[in-house]
Amino acid sequence: MIVCPACKAENPDGTKICVKCATELPKPVKAKTAAAGPAKSFGMRDFGRDLVDLLWLLVIILLICTGFWWTITKGTMHLTDTEEAKILDVPIVVAEKPAGHKKYGHSSRSPKTQNQAPENLSELPSVPSGSAENFFNKGKEQFDNKHYQVSFNYLRQALEIDPTYAKAYFGLGYLYARFDMDDAAVRMYEMALRFDPNHVESINNLAMMYYRAGNLDDSVVLFQKAVALNAQNEDYEYNLGRVYLEKDQFNEALQAYQAAAVLKAGDDRVYNDMALIYEKIGKKQEAQDSWQKVMQYSTNPTLLQQAKAHLDFLQTQS
Questions:
Q1: Weakest mean pLDDT among 52-56, 230-234, 289-293
Q2: Residue 244's pLDDT is what?
Q3: Could you give the residue ranges of the DSSP H alpha helices within 44-199?
């Protein structure tokens, strides 16, 4: 009911004018809503929900970054050539260099050097000036002087000037291999061949890395390519013969060793391996002739002792 403020008559709800005195009635006052309860406290359940939301946000950010990385690397998950050339920061760790590697144009079968720590010399300027070839030659010179860290820096400087300079990647590959960092060495040789597919020294050294890892099939393909590119290099023929011998392809191994012997007469290891093959295929006279060549040319006590033992045995079988 609505009470008229003038005559105090009671009017039904919803009436706008008093039925008794025609006075305008006041509008009804809406009931107030219940007072809000006390503020809800922040509990562990709320913290857990917030943490889950944060984790989902991080996952979304990671997926976005992965998609961006995948786009710029074209799905290979490797940096582009130029980008990779700028992050050659693998530290050098002292270890023994592998045998059979082509060293800056020198013989691939030079004697092993003793372990020696890189000298702690100052870094070179971050922005080089000059040609990539010039810095490569400086790196080679420092390597020959056993200043390995400085050599490493010069080679990196060469790639700052020209990120496609194959010889600098080759030099880094040899340097990494010198310190038994095989994975980094393989990557550098592969980079060299990406920019110069016919860089024969990188082909030879990468083939040697495959050989040492037991990947004989890829190794023999690369050594064959090295021989095809430079048929006058005795080291390439010898290395090819070694892989064929490991694969028990004796005829192919003999051809490679015979070519190596023609290119460089007096190589005791060539005759040693040839003698072993001749024994395996039952050619005793050829084996004896090869063992005699080992006795004639070798100064290696181990090879000499082996050659004498085999000769003595073969002579008893005659």
A1: 52-56
A2: 96
A3: 44-72, 81-85, 132-144, 148-161, 166-178, 182-195
